[in-house]
Amino acid sequence: MAKKQKSFAEKASSTGGKDLVNVKFVKSVPSDREGFWRFNESMISMEKGQTLEATLKQMEDEAKLVDIDMPTDSKNESKITEEIAVKTEEAPVEEAPVEEAKDKKSE
Predict the structure, then answer these.
(1) 75 vs 67, 79, 85, CA distance in Å?
(2) Which of 27, 48, 55, 72 qualifies as a cystine partner to 19, CB 3.0-4.6 A?
(3) Cβ neighbours for 28, distance < 8 A, ≥ 6 positions apart
């Protein structure tokens, strides 16, 4: 028997098991010009049963995590690079004798 395949509409509508709801979110912000307002619109996909406030807070928290820069200690970085440089200088380099390899091939 032939295997039943999904149509394009069925593939496009599948959400991987999650019931999603699309919400149009309109946010008003003061304009650069005095006395005027701007309205920013965005479509937000959220799970069915989840509140809009919780979804917006989650999106805001995720945006904050992206902007976080991890502090670096320049003293530790310079010590690590110095240690690496010292280790590479101290490591003995073994060179294979080229002449002996040629002599073995000729025998």
Answers:
(1) 24, 6, 16
(2) 48
(3) 37, 38, 39, 40
- What are 105's two structure tokens? 């091939």
- DSSP result, 32-96: SSTT-EEEEEEEEEEETT--HHHHHHHHHHHHHHHHPPPP--HHHHHHHHHHHHHHHHHSPPP--
- pLDDT 10s digits, 65-100: 876 666 666 555 566 666 666 555 555 555 555 555
Give residue 40's pLDDT: 93
Q: In angstroms, rounded to a whole number, what is the distance separating the alpha carbons of residues 28 and 40?
A: 6
Query: In this predicted structure, what is the pLDDT of residue 28?
Result: 93
Contacts of 6 (CB under 8 A, 6+ apart): 14
Count the neighbouring beta carbons within 10 Å of the beta carbon of residue 24.
Answer: 8
Question: pTM of this prediction?
Answer: 0.43
